[in-house]
Amino acid sequence: MMWLATYSTSAHLLLFLSCKLPFCIYSLATMQACVELATSVGEMRTETELLPQCWEQINHQYEERRLLVAQSCGELAIYVRPEIRDSLILSIVQQLVEDSATVVREAATHNLALLLPLFPNMDKYYKVEELLFQLVRDPSGVVVDVALRELVPAVVGWGGKLDQILRVLLSHILASAQRCPSVSGVEGTIDSHLRVLGEQERWTIEVLLRMLTELLPFIHQKAIETCPSIDPSENYISESSLKLYATGETEWSAFEWMHTECLPDLIKLACLLPAKEDSLRTVITKYLLAVSGRYGKDYLEHIMLPVFLIAAGDIDSGDFTYFPLSIQSKVRGFRPKTSVAEKIAIICVLPLLLSGILGSPSSRQQLEEYLRKLLIQNTKDGSFSMHHTAEIIDAIRFLCIFEEHHGVIFHILWEMVVSSDTNLKTSAAALLKALVPYVGVKVASTHVLPALITLGSDQNSAVKYASIDALGAVAQHFKSDMVVDKIHIQMDAFLEDGSHEATISVIRALAVAVPHSTDRLREYLLTKIFRLTSAPPTENDIERRRERANVFCEALRALDATELVKRCGCSRPCTQGGTRSYRPGKVRRYAGEHRQGNGGTPWDRDLCQQFLRREQSAWEERGWRAARPCCCFCSSPGGLTNSAGEHEVWSHNEGWIWRHVARQSKGR
């Protein structure tokens, strides 16, 4: 008998050791053999002979063996006694979810979901819940996907503690943001309320919000099942059910949870997120849209909309007819109570109101009306939007992330563009500038540019200069020849105005766009700088002349730092000492000519000397000194070398800009 027991143990061990690295077909064959063996030998021998072999492989050096153990947990659970399933097998799974290999944690997650229905009781519920939240927050997206898709429904179905999971989930979501440091340590400021999220915290909040979305079908089903007036066959909340709820005569806690617990906590989370956290705000928006899609239009209009209106600070628009008196006071408490809180609400909650509530397919008409109210109708002093133009523009910028709302937004924008109100036109230009990164070239050509050209022809200087900044944003994001041509024409019109402010605005807007624009636009900018600096200055105001000089210097610096043609002034590849060397030919050549008195006015030479001093100081601080010309063909100023004599590989503009300046100097 002793010999037989030893032989059986050896046979079990051979199942795991049959292949050094059990890939694919070998793993499948091994698992099939384990299942057949467990079927043949019965529960006791599976527990005493096969499971110990699994346990011994947990810390094996090869992840393929550990993966095999993870797979065996779900497959063999049915062949052991119930009390073993939630003790030994759960202990094996618990250790495997800590494994360093992603594939092992993924398999452990999948098999834990298979294991749960086989547990005899709920004694291990809180341990399983702890594993659930650990796996949902796993650093690997693959493990998270399996946990959300398989483990979350399995735990809800097995444990039946949906309320408990939701309570812990919302607590984790808020805690993940609250423990992050404030943007500013100055008490009483907006930034002191906002949080700087690290990558780990951002990932955690995102996956927990995804988990909340995965739980939404269970939340909705429970609300439907516990409704005193809904036919179980219906799957939405009707207006008649809301009227019954508003009387306060029936208790409907599963229904109330959404607008008394969940939505307020999401609003609290939103009020911790800086404006740049568009990714998390998008996840919240998608959850809100999913809620309205399941609960129905009536719930969206009569429950969700008033909650977010009051939380966004728009206290006059909320209708509380469908709220019981006991809940009305709680919802009214979401109203921001200080000026700082009001501004935070507009920054953080208004984007969700526009995109997640009014952005629902059933509320498009309301969205257009509300945008018109925000941007056009409320122009009188003291209105909701009068003193928060920048925050409202940022909220609409977030709304523009969703392409389906572009039509509504640009329809309202055009009404602002053709308005006679100067403030509306200035706001329209600022809004167009904010929306440019979120539209395609077609929308830019058919909507953005025509609106900006119309604003650019306005007699009011503030409107005109605001449109120049927006055109610079268009130049920065689009490289289409048609778009660039339109920008050239409009900028020429601004420069023909001849005013100091127009010139400064054009050069500054184009200089900002230079690193991301086309060669044609860079050449256009250089041409304008050359012509403007060649003309005698008409300004007697020293401050204006200094501002003009500074803007031109910054534009030259921006041009000098772009990478266009990696050639020297002779149009040949620059080599020196066997190393390719790219020289700062064009802009420094241009500046050098004026420094030597070969062209331009005394004021212009002062400008170029200022530019050269800035550039030389900047490079000398980094350990570089002037170098000799790179080759016998090139007479352009040399590059820079470091203390070891090594040539810097310039990423500066070379051949074509040098030749362009030479042609301009000769009057071609």
TrEMBL record:
Q: InterPro entries given for it? A: ARM-like (IPR011989), ARM-type_fold (IPR016024), HEAT (IPR000357), HEAT_type_2 (IPR021133), RELCH (IPR040362)
Does the keyword Amino-acid biosynthesis feature in the UniProt annotation? no
Q: Does the keyword Cell wall biogenesis/degradation apply?
A: no
Q: Which SUPFAM superfamilies match?
A: ARM repeat
What keywords would UniProt list here?
Repeat
| Ranges: HEAT repeats | 448-486
* GO CC annotation: recycling endosome; trans-Golgi network
Q: Which residues form a coiled coil?
A: none
Membrane spanning residue stretches = none
* Gene3D superfamilies recorded: Leucine-rich Repeat Variant
According to its UniProt entry, one GO biological process term is: intracellular cholesterol transport
What is this protein identified as? Uncharacterized protein
